[in-house]
Amino acid sequence: MADPLERLTNLLALLLETREPLTQDRIAAELANQYPVDLIARRGAFERDKAMLRGEGIPIETVTTADGGTAYRIDRRRYELADLGLTPDETRALQVAVATVHLGTAWGEDALLKLDVDAATPTGTAAALGSLEALPVLFQANTERAAVTFGYRGTTRNLDPYGLVSRDGFWYVVGRDHARDQMRTFRVDRIDGTIDVGGPGTFTAPVGFVPADALLSDPKAFGDSDAEATVLVDAGHAARLLRELGEGAVRERRDDGSMVFAVPCANRWAFRSWLLGFMEHAEVLAPADVRAEVIEWLQAIADAGSRT
Amino acid sequence: MSAPRRGPRPAQERLRRLLVMLPWLMERGDVPVAEVADRFGLSEQHVIADLERASLCGLPPYVDEMIDLYIDDGIVHVGVPRLFTRPLRLTSSEGFSLLAAGTAALELPGADRDGPLGRAMVKLARSLGDTPALAVELERPPLLDVVQHATDGAERLAISYWSAGRDELTERTIAPQATFVERGNFYVVADDSRHGDERTFRIDRIDAARPTGEHFTKRAVTLPIDGRWFEGAEGIDVVIVIPADAAWVVERYPVHAITVLGDGRVEVRLAVVSDRWLARLLLRIGPGAEVVEPVDRRQLNAQAAANVLGRYR
After folding, report:
1. Which residue, of A110, A244, B12, B256, has the greatest Cβ tally within 10 A?
2. CATH of B144-215, one of 3.90.1520, 2.30.30, 1.10.10, 2.60.40
């Protein structure tokens, strides 16, 4: 059997060289003896090759012929990497960035090879940003202004992806949710299964849109209200919290060094998780229902333990 | 570059390398096989195999000279370039990675938005389509600049540090070797006077830092970037069962093994630094969490809950 690399390379060359789109029959004839003679096997092999080339990002165009068949070609201008016009110092900066920021994949290094840039030694602070298979898909949909459809916590969402944000170690996609006609944020690692991408150019992002501004800054504030709880924090932990929340959140300073802070609690789950991080060094004082919920939660844990 | 891998290589991967190797070779003319192998992270054997295969490719009327190259005496010779003179455009994965890496690097200490990297990002974004909107936020802890300055200048720092594992504030002197960011948190790898060994500290947990004026000689450190570390090395291995809706535990912390139980609950094995740390995790997960191993920690969550409840009585 012929080496699959040879047939793929020939197919690619043929589609790049041809002036007019070619049907599968024409392609098989041009690449004499490289595709199986049996028609069904030939179609299977051709579809696999086509999928593989497209998987590499090769823009194979499909044209419908006069008699209703399908023909293929590749526009060389769309195939070739455009010259970015980087100056030597800009190239050098990009090199260092790729060496310094770890995405956990080889995509960045592959890109540098195409740009004919050597790998560099990292300098300064190294950074690790997680990467996910869904990110390039969402990214491309964003640049093409194409709507996306995906499953999220058991529901199907249709979204105009306005942008991507990495915050606190997680990636978020921000955009307009079609069903709700409102701006929504989704955690990319929580998206279920594959993402369907619609046709390009179906939306425009709002003028001056900044993705980070669309994200709520504090998960404890996610929700439909601006509810706040007051929390008493022991002296040993108050200084650190003060640095985090700022002077504006302080409601009371006590003589023993402990402090009372106002903290968003619209998202009860996030609030409780945050509060329990202090263990016995913090106590929610008000509102009464939030305090009662925390007590109930702790009581359930204590009771579960005494039963075993 | 990634190390050459073993076993048969998928055709798609070979094609990917070939399409970037060919334009690179055409630009240069004659290149030793060893140099090609090194550059593209392949073995010399694979370079020769794939290039010879490519040289056999051809379409009428260019049956032989479509890809005009031959290998002789360890040197790749390239003739008149016809096809594949330019690399394939960036894939969405590659474009995303470059932009994400560059955008993140602009958030790191010492980065200059108006400098070469900032300009490179503008050019890259323009080539990738209709102004991509991608942001990387790295919240800098207030003491980052002090720590970074000491790291760059190899100067010892006296710090007050809150250890989450032991839940205590400690005073120590550290020799900061390198800083890094992971999952949105800034860390410093340093030699710790308290223990006389290398430790990783979260910079936002440093309550105070004072440069001592005392200098040290820096050494090469391997950054623990892959989530497989915890401050304070002496960990205990625990097995806990968590409800299905507490899957965030698996996302947040490095777990060694995951088993989904018949009732939908999940059993995870992970290393924890201390009982205190484990108790905090269990309180957050709630009444559905159970410790399986070690057996003497089974009451840990109930005890911790009772202890916190003490405040509310």
Report:
1. A110
2. 2.30.30
